[in-house]
Batch of 2 targets.
Target 1
Amino acid sequence: MKELKELTRPNIWALKPYSSARDEYNGAEASVFLDANENPYNTPNNRYPDPMQRELKNMIAPIKQVDPDAIFLGNGSDEAIDLVYRAFCTPGVDNVVAIDPTYGMYQVCADVNDVEYRKVLLDENYQFSAEKLLAATDEHTKLIFLCSPNNPTGNNLDRKEIKTVLDDFQGLVIVDEAYADFSDAPSFLADLERYPNLIVLQTFSKAWGCAAIRLGMAFASKEIISVFSKIKYPYNVNLLTQKEAVTMLHRHYEVDRWVKSLLEERTRLINEFVTLPCCRKVYPTDANFFLAKMSDAKKIYDYLVGRGIIVRNRTNVSLCRDCLRITVGTRPENDILLEALRNFEV
Ligand SMILES: *Cc1c(COP(=O)(O)O)cnc(C)c1O
């Protein structure tokens, strides 16, 4: 990997971050807070939240077996995705490389930040080759985006190829593990110390059942995390979110139960799906959703909408012609979907 200083935008490297009242007071015992122009009434919402989310990070660290300094928390993983562009990519100069198809936010953030986005098509099994990906890079490539299990295809990417990218790429590699809780594959969190150029993204939005609270996690070396901390909004994770996340972490056994039951439902749903006359093929999945090739995705999508059932039409995405992306729901929800599709006239 190149020096982090060389990978970081010069203005960001030189930046002196905004120092909030709660940054400057560093946690010594105190009971009178007259430093932040807050209202003394209406506890607890009158107080600014901890800008560094220390309590939450201290709870997440042992669960993920990483150091608290290796964690960044943001307003969804989408915040972390935007921050990697703002921290490392000079608009109009630098570029990033990503597999295609994949999660749409990588390209949206590239476009917002005026950074060239280079796509490398997956093969027919939705796998990628490190060699092809690396061939798309040049001296201005700062980031490579990988997503495993990948959205919208559902499959894990080949581990060996990911490791080759981590070994051979001189810039930063983002491995988005939003769906890792549903997969048997080991997380790349265990490889953080081995790869200084690795950034792992995870989220409370999927297996943790907390999409509404907007809480995403990025894990990386503490040097990379300090760059994020420098440019994030001072109070980027609000108090209600921090409190709810702490509550959820105490209830983590529920998450295990949800995952187990969703995986059982996934098997049942797919077994039924492949017998539907309107279904051509279901692709292998390691996530809480699957991609299904249908006789006519647009027609079936519209038909389902007419019955109040919403799935994701991916027919306009690369390599996904006539594919619907189906999220696994509760058993009754999945039954409603199956019943509707059985009644669809091909
Ligand atoms: C859902 C999803 C996320 C989660 O984004 P949040 O902002 O944390 O809700 C991240 N990456 C991928 C690939 C996703 O599908």
Note: The mean pLDDT is 97.
Target 2
Amino acid sequence: MFVKTAFAAALLQTTSIALAQSFTPLVSKSFTYTNLPYQADPDVGERGVQTGYNICNSTTEGQDSLCQTAIINSVDDFCLWGSPEPNGLIGNVEGEVVAWCTKPGRGTRVIPAGAITGLTFVKTPDYVQVTGLIHQTYLDIEVWDAGGELDPHGSDQRGNPLGGLLFTNAFASSNGNPNTYVQAVEWHSFMGGDTFCLKACDPSGPNAARYCDHVYDRLGCYYNAPASYAEGVFESCLGDSQDFPGVYTGANGVVSTYTQLPESLGPITYLPYAPKPPATSQCSQFTSSDLFSGAPAPTPTA
Ligand SMILES: *[C@@H]1O[C@H](CO)[C@@H](O)[C@H](O)[C@H]1NC(C)=O
């Protein structure tokens, strides 16, 4: 009996070691934009399976697409993560969010006309980023949802969404080939309160994981991706890189790192610093119709 039990225990142990060894965190996987697998996440875990897919083409295109491959190239060519179903709460659908893009042609949903009411695209030495204001119901997100963070981590390291990938050609000038898409392995995004931000960190930069840190998930766009968030402004700029999320310089010149308080201590009512948008330069101004003339009409859900 003892022998049998010990044998079973040994077997179980072997099995769990095998499972642990076969799992690769999403940020440790590398992909080529032109040669993607059907799903970046083939695992079955506590959160189930990847609900969408990464091969996105004309057959998957449309407002019910479950494409989970996003891009961020420029002020008029990027995707945001939105709900796969009407009235989604980010906290409930974070594992299943899908790409909503500014242009058709990528096998995704397309962000409806008038959704984005203010927008800044910025390219810095370390990342590209879009920030702005949005009618989030146009991306099927519940009107009152304060939302939350999306990133390629999560406590199970499978990402939010599971298997979600982000690519960009905006770092092309740094690698010499203007047509090359690189996988922005480290990225973060917040969606909620009619505010959005999406930052893709240059994987060839030394601090990609820090600029795209994922531990300040209760602080929202203004702290993680400080920018103007101005209504009615549509612009594309160059810019300095921000301070790392959570890092700030006090009035006395001392640089400190904020530690986010756990949710068990209740709402965050005080932060020792204000968001500090970095300097921008060479901004080009646009109107919404300059950028999004091909967008479909919204389907009101509320
Ligand atoms: C189009 O995308 C679907 C869904 O990912 C995939 O099953 C299909 O093989 C793709 N078609 C082509 C021609 O790549």
Note: The helical segments are 2-22, 90-93, 172-175, 208-211, 220-224, 288-291.
